[in-house]
Amino acid sequence: xxxxxxxxxxxxxxxxxxxxxxxxxxxxxxxxxxxxxxxxxxxxxxxxxxxxxxxxxxxxxxxxxxxxxxxxxxxxxxxxxxxxxxxxxxxxxxxxxxxxxxxxxxxxxxxxxxxxxxxxxxxxxxxxxxxxxxxxxxxxxxxxxxxxxxxxxxxxxxxxxxxxxxxxxxxxxxxxxxxxxxxxxxxxxxxxxxxxxxxxxxxxxxxxxxxxxxxxxxxxxxxxxxxxxxxxxxxxxxxxxxxxxxxxxxxxxxxxxxxxxxxxxxxxxxxxxxxxxxxxxxxxxxxxxxxxxxxxxxxxxxxxxxxxxxxxxxxxxxxxxxxxxxxxxxxxxxxxxxxxxxxxxxxxxxxxxxxxxxxxxxxxxxxxxxxxxxxx
Length: 376
Ligand SMILES: [Zn+2]
Known about the structure:
Distance between the termini: 5 Å
CATH class of the largest domain: Alpha Beta
Largest sheet: 5 strands, parallel
Shape: globular
Helix content: 40-55%
Order of helices and strands: HHEHEHEHHEHHEHHHHHHHEE
Bound molecules: zinc ion
Number of helices: 15
């Protein structure tokens, strides 16, 4: 395991490839931003806006996938107020047992800024079964739900004949999952190659009880269907100089976003601005840490190092303290939801712990072998 020389990204992130000088793709992109010709990028953005307005078959110029969180609120307002477009928002909602009150309030806050929004609620029973399956097959409960989240938007875009789709962050540029990279940094038509989405493969969702008609909301449209519908998926983050967790968090909090009040060691998040609408992504971040050696706080720290807000040394201390942390209460509520005991939860996690990176003290207790910032 190696670390980027500039930030604290490890080369264990799926899809990542460091440059020859041990620099991660996200730091490389950040460096390039200094020399970007923003005027020509603005012109490019204009041409995309025109594409949306030209193909306004339904009355809506574009569609935006939203959750009501910090990124989506900022994007929605930008599209409406800066780009002067008429967007339709699409929100794939969590089932009642998973959605937090804060998540519901944030959706209300967002639409109260004057938006039309379609909410999609996949069947809670199937949702829960698939989550359980994702947890036992991949030790990643979000594998099916992310498929639903990312499929819902192009599906609706095709149904409503709205060819322009905005998403926010390009994971290839801003995180380093290079499989997502399209023909340029704004092109999101390769989104389904993202690690979690596995090319849109849904075969593992099927079994004797669950046939294809039960998982329609999880089916990512085929390339053929997307081409016929002339779909154009675009990352808005590519056009912003200041796309970051903190900037988006500040912007949206000032516009009514309700954020978390838990402590960093309960959620592995120093500012409480991520995963506002449910509580279990936090435990997935802990599992990610045990699989790859980096968790949620690494994403914050990496961004802050690049932006010069903290030094790499300060980052190392934060990562040591908080990465991979998750409150017991979320492990409890998650286990209860998918119908397993805490012991069974740790049995499964135990199988996925990367023993090259961690030594096993006992089930549920692991000690890192690597040095943060240095590697193995
Ligand atoms: Zn880096």
